[in-house]
Design goal:
Length: 331
């Protein structure tokens, strides 16, 4: 694994680094699975440490940070959006909004950034540009104007699509800009938020629940992209942004990157325990839609039991795999 460190102050040191053998992950004290990452000083924008920072990779739901930025440039939080049938039909993860329902931009942004709702992404995109396809074209032009020259988008949600990619460096740059928008910074730092119908949304960024260092962030996952993440961490007067793409185990990869980032900033933090994988969230009231879904789930379980043990065993296995895939996509 080749790593890039921040620029040395002296030209001689830079020349030495160019001639020296490439750094390895072990030499930098890192053991991670990610295909690409960037650690950035949040105040200056300087890249402190990177690995494959400009390699094109699918961003998955970290793309939703860009979507939210563009939406807030064009709509007000209290603007109303009527859900279309196309938006309601978006694949998971989703909050099951229905065609004809009316939501505020603020409600859909919370759904987008906390629950990673693809139906909310599509509804917002249609309101801004008329269709998700047109929105993706408009957003691509905008992020390049913001300095993300290696990013091309085809959706508003980050689900797999041809000709859709970004880089760890572009993600870090865009996230730094996103944190300059108070409304978006507030949304991404929120753990729970309730929208109409009594539906409570939970932030998928588990660091918000495990460490005071975490300020805000966005997770992503698809089978093609593997785990992705971009987020902000603070300690005293130091702040770092970490973007990560193509990880097999994002929480385990991110902890040493957080520690290394603060080390490079001259700040000591205690070793972060593996708390994120151990988190268990209690089931909370999610309104009528969730209640109906739970009722259908119970009915399906009863039907499998009635079919007898011989028939129910393979059914359980199949259902478990499907549930695991959906959960991975949401997180």
């Amino acid at each position: 694994m080749k790593l890039s460190l921040k620029k040395p102050a002296l030209a001689g040191a830079l020349a030495f680094l160019l001639l020296a053998p490439a750094l390895t992950a072990g030499a930098a004290g890192l053991d991670i699975t990610a295909r690409s990452f960037v650690i950035m000083d949040a105040k200056t924008g300087e890249v402190l440490l990177s690995y494959n920072p400009q390699v094109f990779l699918p961003p998955a739901s970290t793309l939703k940070v860009m979507t939210a930025m563009y939406v807030l440039d064009h709509l007000k939080l209290d603007d109303k959006i009527t859900v279309s049938a196309t938006a309601a039909a978006a694949p998971a993860s989703k909050i099951a909004i229905k065609a004809g329902e009316v939501y505020t931009v603020e409600e859909l942004l919370y759904a987008l950034m906390l629950s990673s709702a693809n139906d909310a992404a599509r509804a917002l995109a249609e309101r801004v540009s008329g269709s998700e396809e047109a929105f993706a074209r408009d957003l691509t032009k905008q992020v390049r104007q913001w300095g993300a020259y290696r990013t091309t988008l085809a959706t508003a949600n980050g689900l797999p699509a041809d000709n859709q990619f970004s880089t760890a460096q572009d993600l870090a740059l865009l996230f730094r800009k996103a944190m300059d928008t108070p409304e978006l910074a507030k949304i991404m730092s929120t753990k729970y938020h309730t929208i109409q119908g009594g539906r409570e949304l939970r932030n998928h960024n588990r660091f918000l629940f495990t460490t005071p260092l975490a300020v805000a962030g966005k997770t992503g996952f698809t089978k093609a992209s593997k785990h992705t993440f971009v987020g902000l961490f603070k300690k005293d007067d130091k702040a770092i942004i970490i973007s990560l793409l193509g990880s097999q185990q994002k929480w385990a990869d991110l902890r040493p990157l957080i520690e290394k980032g603060f080390e490079l900033e001259g700040v000591h933090i205690a070793k972060l325990p593996p708390a994120e994988e151990k988190l268990r969230f209690a089931k909370r009231h999610m309104g009528k839609i969730a209640a109906v879904a739970e009722g259908k789930s119970k009915m399906r379980r009863q039907i499998r039991v009635a079919q007898g043990s011989a028939a129910s065993v393979p059914g359980k296995k199949k259902g478990y795999k499907k549930k695991a895939r959906v959960q991975a996509q949401e997180e």
